[in-house]
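User: Okay, second chain of the day. Same drill as before: sequence in, structure tokens out.
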Amino acid sequence: MTNNSPIRARLLDACRRAAQYETYVYTDFLDLQGVSLYKRLARELTAAPSRLWGGYPQAEHQLVIFGSEEDFGYPPEPPVTLLQIRPAAPRFAEVLTHRDYLGALMGLGIRRDVLGDLLVKDSVCCVFCLDTISGYIKTNLTQVRHTLVSVCGISSLPDDQRPVTEDFHFVAAS
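Assistant: Same drill. Structure tokens below.
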């Protein structure tokens, strides 16, 4: 629990601020470990209602929204922008992967906790990011590996970018 104490402290503080100021409070994106810690701490976060949000139902990186529409009278608007990054000249582009896009974003000096999931299909990447960093990405991300890219904001996740899930059934010996 000592490794998670900064995350724990941020979650408790955000919950307290939402209740005290009667406004929505949003955390940065949490990874799977942070999401797991949030779920364990849910009993302690009683000052304000809260829930996870990642942009789509199966998201791994999620932020926590403290507050509820019933309490404040309006729905939450997470400070998140959805960006689409695509090769500027698809005909001459390399095949780009999740690793390539994440490496390019980290190369700009961007912290991982301001980025949600990166969904890559056919060398096109959709990334959820905090509003505070979206302008920086649009301006400065010009190249991924050796491929020139263009970045634009989109309003919703395209259907072909949504992850496809499959159910598996296994029989395991004890």
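Strands lie at 25-26, 50-53, 63-66, 80-87, 115-121, 124-130, 143-144, 147-154.

User: Thanks, on to the next one.
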